[in-house]
What does this fold into?
Amino acid sequence: GQNIDQPTEMTATEGAIVQINCTYQTSGFNGLFWYQQHAGEAPTFLSYNVLDGLEEKGRFSSFLSRSKGYSYLLLKELQMKDSASYLCAVRGGDYKLSFGAGTTVTVRA
Amino acid sequence: DVKVTQSSRYLVKRTGEKVFLECVQDMDHENMFWYRQDPGLGLRLIYFSYDVKMKEKGDIPEGYSVSREKKERFSLILESASTNQTSMYLCASNPGSSASGANVLTFGAGSRLTVL
It folds into this structure.
């Protein structure tokens, strides 16, 4: 089976940087995804990493280390609209996607 | 804009009732999925389908069944609803094995089911 861990909650100030860590233990690996989910809404795709290293997309970056079973999502220049849950998901050797429980980020003025 | 549409946002049912949750996607995707989302547990896969009339069990299929008669539509069925099936149900789709790269899941807005 898959085991995916991420912190339950994080709080940060508008304009700051927040890093959400995700560690995983899976049977095989075929990519790691980050999704954003605002309360009452559908999860939306943020990033995909399949090779080691950093992927940058505007204010959001995602990092992967396959040897360590570790990823992080970095949110820069935080805005109030970034208050949401962030879901780490891993595609295992069977190509099924398994999700962590999600990290709720609260941005304060 | 591409869409996954779940017909019911909120449902309240009684124990023992049969419940149908409908999902339609307009992206011509091969794969469709049903997840449930519970606080502290994340999204858990119930069933998925990689082709019309095909279905595969996910991690928690007990108490559920599915139907995929047309490519665009994937239904989740609770034959006899129980209180422990009170949850948020999310439908999703992705292009399938023919797609290269990330093969990203697109989600519907969810159906919140309460079983009394």
Remarks:
- Chain A touches chain B at residues 4, 8, 31, 33, 40-45, 48, 50, 87, 89, 96-102 (CB under 8 Å).
